[in-house]
Amino acid sequence: MKLWQGVSLALMLAAMLTVTPVAAADDPNTVIERLEAALMAKDLDGAVALFADDATARRNPPLPNTTGMYRGAAEIRTFWQALIALNPRFETVGQRQVAGEQVTWTNNTGLDLFRRAGIASFISRGEATVRGGKIVAITITIPPEELARLQAAMAAQPAPPTAPRTGGGSEAAYIRRLGDG
Questions:
Q1: I need a surface site. Which of 1, 27, 28, 38 has the fewest CB within 10 A?
Q2: What is the pTM of this model?
Q3: What residues does 60 pair with on adjacent strands?
Q4: Given a cut of 80, is residue 4 above it in pLDDT?
Q5: pLDDT, tens digit, 9 for 90 and up, residues 106-144
Q6: Nearest CA to 135 among 63, 40, 71?
Q7: Which of the two residues, 157 and 56, has the higher pLDDT score?
Q8: Architecture of 20-157 per CATH?
Q9: What burial class does residue 157 get, using C-beta atoms within 10 Å of its C-beta: 0-12 exposed, 13-18 middle, 19+ buried?
């Protein structure tokens, strides 16, 4: 009888170990890890696939001339496309905190734009709701003190050179003259 109990216990443990990785794939922490890996690999499709069709993404503070709110797959694609172009690197500070469907974290985030200005990384904070393995809401925040540091570094950068004007007049005047030909 003891042999049968031992075999039953072994089978039960094996079944539990087999189920655990499947459940972990939907875990909010794992989903955010997959998102960051996709973004660093410049896998836009992989990143967007982690979002529910009606998901929302929020950038705080918003970029100039935007609300900072993105809704649905097409807008979320835009949200991440701009970031991927800046060659993002993320290093989690401490542990992500998971409470049910909610996950919060702090990252050292590196972007080429700021690396060129002498800032290797800056602090960003994330909050997300993950339901059924899909992100339904995410907010990325740059704290005010970090934003001030980034703005100061960018303000200290020289203005990009402009092409010399030739032939006098503006580009608009030149374009108008093209039609006179």
A1: 1
A2: 0.73
A3: 141
A4: no
A5: 999 999 988 988 999 999 999 999 999 999 999 999 999
A6: 71
A7: 56
A8: Roll (3.10)
A9: exposed
CB-based contact 137:128 (threshold 8 Å): yes
Please give the Cα distance from 150 to 122 (Å, whole number).
Answer: 8
What is the C-alpha separation between 111 and 119, in angstroms, rounded? 9
d(CA 36, CA 114): 19
Task: Report which residue type is found at 178.
Answer: L
- SS3 of the chain: the string is CHHHHHHHHHHHHHHHHHHHHHHHHCCHHHHHHHHHHHHHCCCHHHHHCCEEEEEEEEEECCCCCCCCEEEHHHHHHHHHHHHHCCCCEEEECCCCEEECCEEEEEEEEECHHHHCCCCCCEEEEEEEEEECCEEEEEEEECCHHHHHHHHHHHHCCCCCCCCCCCCCCCHHHHHHHHCCC
Burial class (CB in 10 A: 0-12, 13-18, 19+), 171: exposed
Cβ atoms of 129 and 136 within 8 Å: the answer is yes
